[in-house]
Amino acid sequence: MQRSRPVRTVEAVPQYRRFLSELLSFGFVGVIGTLIMILGANVMRAWLGGSPVTSVAVPTVISTLASYLLNRFWVFRHRDSDGSGREVAIFFVLNGVGLLIQVVCTGFTYYTLGLHGGVAYNASLLAGVAFGAAFRYWSYKKWVFTPAVA
Fold first, then answer.
1. Which residues fall within 8 angstroms of residue 22, CB to CB, at 6 or more apart?
2. How many Å is the Cα radius of gyration of the chain?
3. Rounded distance, CA 125 to CA 107, Å?
4. How does pLDDT run across 74-113, given as a tens digit for each residue?
5. Is residue 98 part of a domain?
6. Residue range 54-73, pLDDT digits in tens
7. What's its membrane topology (predicted)?
8. Of 60, 78, 96, which residue constitutes the final position of a domain?
9. Burial, 8: exposed, middle or buried (Cβ in 10 Å; 0-12, 13-18, 19+)?
10. 59 is in which domain, residue-wise?
11. 142 and 89 inside one domain
């Protein structure tokens, strides 16, 4: 007599494994979004002759849209969506807050602490990215990709 394996549902997966999987997927989406922004900005500036502001703004919007789609349909696919533009609007606003956190970290290091060297700049940039990413992850789960209603 052959034994059948039980079917694993979302509820059967331990909470910490679900959290770790979600966190790693979220980080991967962040890397993809960052690459889209950096590569897009460089392509627009070097090959297409775009202005510095346009060269950053357009790829950032594209990166944010790609991040939304990847987060909605991959990372947080198990969470509800109301199907309205509300989710997208809140996502973009929260991304703006995350960007502001990054800028504040860099500005604090440069203007308040007076550290102008390359190491200080990159350390503040990394701290800003880390704090901004932590805020985004928390806020997406709280306000954008809400738990599925049972």
1. 75, 76
2. 19
3. 10
4. 998 888 777 678 888 999 999 989 888 888 888 898 889 9
5. yes
6. 777 788 889 999 999 999 99
7. Multi-pass membrane protein
8. 78
9. exposed
10. 13-78
11. yes
